[in-house]
Structures are given as structure tokens and as C-alpha cells.
Amino acid sequence: MTKIDLETKIIDKNDRIAAQNRELLKQNNVCMINLLASPGSGKTSTIIATINALKDACKIAVIEGDIAGDVDSVTIKALGVDAVQINTRGSCHLEADMIAQALDVLDLDKLDLIIVENVGNLVCTTDFDLGEDAKVVILSVPEGDDKPIKYPGIFRESQAIIVNKIDTLSMFDFDYDKFASVVDDLNAQAPIFKIAATKGDGIENWIDWLKNKLKKQ
Question: In 10 A of CB 19, how many CB atoms?
């Protein structure tokens, strides 16, 4: 009996398209960041804070991934930034072919940075390479400090980690030192940025990290 591993075939196809995406971005000197988080963590507010901090230094576009709706892309476009909406219609993650279609819409010659807001999910978003230069995971304080224990994969695979809503730390049972210790065991190379995106607090170190990624393009 011949067995066909459909999951392996799907991942292999995705990885081939991701490699094509990565090469296309490299040819155009565009950096792409894949932003991962659970719903309500502050992905969009972090993107807005990032745009406000970098809008005079580089040209930015956003690819918005949602199961349905276009609320976030409308918000981004109101800032004067190009945004492409992808509705997955039930799928819990973006895939490389979806990003390839979005890249076809964008004028890559006029861009320096693309931020992908992936579907709100801490599990399967990690498994699908989009052709990005870096995965970045956001965890908000109200979600709790135990997420790296429960979802180690996403923290292990991310090149940077953002702790958002840090201004609410005293209001929740969030042990930051415990969180940082677990993250260090999983991924000692990834910097942790503590921010309050809606207020702009702590955004400077995150922006410096991004600027360094852009310099390497």
C-alpha cells in the first residue's frame, strides 16, 4: 500500500513558494517581518506604533491576514500606508502562496519594509514559512506569563519577542522574570522588547532592532 503524507506535501509546496518570495524580496531589497500573536495581543497597535516611528525613515507596506473582514487594513490605509487584505476564510494561518499574491499587488521597487500581520494564532502560524526575514511574536501581559511553556514552538522559532501592554504589569499576575527565564531557555538569541504600543512606550529598542534588519538588506 502506498501512503501519501499530505502534510509533508503541503509543507514542501509552501516552502518552495516561500523560497521564491524570499528571493523576490531580496532582489528588491525589501525586508519582510512576519508578526505572530494571539487575538487581542496588540498586533495592529504595534504595527501602527511602528509605522509612526519609521514613516519618515523608510517606505512601509502591510499585509493583513484575517479569517474574515478588513477592519485592520482599513485602519492601516488611513495612515497613508499601502495595505493588502488576505482573508483565509477559515484557515488559521497565512501560507506562502497567499503572500506571493499579495506581493504581486505591491510595488516592491518603492518599499523598504513589509509587515505581515498573521492570523491570530500561537500554533500553526509557526509551521508555515512565508519567505520572511524574521518571525516576531507578540505576547500581551493580560495573556499570562505561561505562554512560552504552553506554546514553546512559536517562542523558539521567533527572532524577536515583544511583550505588549507592559504598562498593565501591576494589574495582572504576570511574573516577568519567570517569563524571561523560560524564553531564555527556549531561545537565548531572541531579544525581548517591553512596550505599550498604544502609548508608544518602550518602542525605541524595537525600532532600533528593525532598523538594523533593514540595514542588512
Answer: 13
